[in-house]
Design goal:
Blueprint (H helix, E strand, L loop, with lengths): L8 H8 L5 H8 L3 H14 L14 H26 L6 H7 L3 H4 L7 H14 L2 H12 L5 E4 L15 E5 L4 E5 L7 E2 L10 E10 L2 E11 L12 E5 L12 E5 L2 E4 L9 E2 L5 E2 L9 H31 L18 H36 L6 H28 L12 H9 L8 H20 L10 H4 L12 H28 L4 H7 L1 H25 L8 H21 L1 H7 L4 H18 L3 H7 L4 H4 L10 H10 L10 H11 L4
Parallel strand pairs: 1-5, 2-5
Antiparallel strand pairs: 2-3, 3-9, 4-8, 5-6, 7-8, 10-11
Helix pairs in contact: 2-3, 2-21, 4-5, 7-8, 9-10, 9-11, 9-12, 9-21, 10-11, 10-17, 10-18, 10-20, 11-12, 11-13, 11-17, 13-15, 13-17, 15-16, 15-17, 15-18, 15-19, 17-18, 18-20
Length: 669
Amino acid sequence: MSVNNSINVDLLKERQNASFDSEELAAVIWQGENQLQMKRFFEKELLSDADDLHIYEYLPYEDLYTKALNDCIKAAEKLKKLQNKLNPDGNEIYPALMLGPLSESLMPLGNTFTVHILMFTRALKSHGTDELYQKFGKRADNFEIIGTYAQTELGHGTNLKGLETRADYDRKTDEFILNTPTLSSYKWWPGGLGQSVNYCIVVAQLYINNESKGIQMFLLQVRDEETHMPLPGIDIGDIGKKIGFNGVNNGFLGLKHVRIPRTNMLMKNSKVLSDGTFIQSPKSQLAYLPMVYVRCMVVFNAGYHLALAATIATRYSAVRRQSPINPDEPEPQILDHVTQQHKLFPEIATAIAYNLSVSKLNQHFQDTSVAIKKNDFSRLEELHALACTLKASSSYDATAGIERLRLACGGHGYLTSSNFGNIYAKISVTCTYEGENTVLYLQVGKILMKKWADVLAEKQLMPTMSYLNDWKNSKTFNWNGSWDCMIKALQFVTTKKTEITFSHYMRRLKMGQSQPIALNNTGIELIQVAELHACVFVASNFFTEVTGDALAKQSNELRAVLHNLLELFLLKTILRYMNFILLFINLTDADVTDLQNRLEEVLKRLRPDAVAICDSFDFHDSVLQSTLGAYDGNVYERIYAAAKQSSLNSQPVPKSFHTHLKPFMQGKL
């Protein structure tokens, strides 16, 4: 696409007038100067021939898949070549890049191999025996075989205990017999399953002598390695076009009396011996660890894509001029409208808040993984609760934020070439995969009920919930409006809401309701306390990171910007949950007015730095893929150039004029 390469004058002024160095903030966002420069090195190496706008919506569905598969193969080859150049003896660079920000440009239609890299190979290594990994895992690492992770079924998703797929052990032949006994038990949704993979890990109910032993994982070949034809007993295919990710090739899988060797069960933890003896895993939750890892990735992707959308909307708002504030003056940048600032800036702050939170979440995951290797499973419950609540809150917040940012761009935000549609599709789906958000919040709510019982029993709590003990005996809260006060207010409110929810739950039990019924009837409040708990973690972590020692060496100018972002995030959060806050804290009219005044003031303080903050996200144009958000700000030229690419503009008069429109117009209706 050919456009003027000069920088739009309004964007140029925004960057020149910023109060801080965007490079300094970029290093913070990308976890250090070395990481930032490494990212840029990879972009230079891999995106030199990349286009900054891909419009594939005109292609038929089969062509979309073919294009996506070709993109993925080219990306894998590029990344492996770079891997060999940088570290020929290693194998760690290209899988990470295949799943990272570069994939937005290298594989704009979605990565067909995501589940292969993220779950299939990891599950073989972390849950399979050494023999199984030697036989299949190394081949999978080299893409000699391609697999997926088949868990979700047509009739069951988040409720893993309800999965219907069966694996019955036949001790006579030392084999498992896999079946999907009903249509609802068909595996549904695994990425790449449709036409791309030849192996998969099937999550199924293990039966020995027709007795259930719970959920286990089994390695299954689904297609011939040479012909790619489905193997006997296997019904497999693509599930059809979706709102987004149409290159991922999500598939279905039905199984009818498919036999696999006993050794194809992933038996590093749970085991089935040849005589049919079942040895239970030391911790059943270990089977869900691959899913927990993916939830950590979801939190990263939510913040990342929210930042993408915020960059596009903010740059567009600096270029777009409309609606004079003073009737006799020229049209201003719409970024000067306080209502526009209120749409954009809180989303920028939220993106940074989740960027900081995912770093802490990843540290929890790494610490837990190290502990598990030492047979210490004490951290699993906390990791599970944290991953569930952050996955739900980040995906909900990012989905709502991206849509708010699209609306902030008016009609042009509705264009496919704005890329808001793709960004929204990539994040809205995370609200329902790897655990539907309502179900995840309910799980966390139930954990909070257990922990409140521990509070009453004066037991020690996991660190991320220890604030419940801190505020258990407090009846009132003294408000002064400081940042520390806001964090403590959120902790206090969450504690009191947890206490009340627990009392309502216990009242239902005393009325004679069973525990499941009582939990179901308390569901609305369980979700509320889980959401508040997520809010406490994100806000507390943002406060700690920005005011702690980590940023002590940064410039005064950068700290001032981060303080403004923290102020905005905390104000936004307090105002968002004001209904709960007013239930437990006696705020005066003056307190509420002060919050509103502070909100308006911090928007004004952030106004000169908004574009520079978004520049600090450091998104390559070929990653942004947007006519509205390119670094040069030549919005109208890019919109027009993209419109010219429309297939309807390939000829001045379309065939449909002669076959349909002209006869209709001459019919004298």
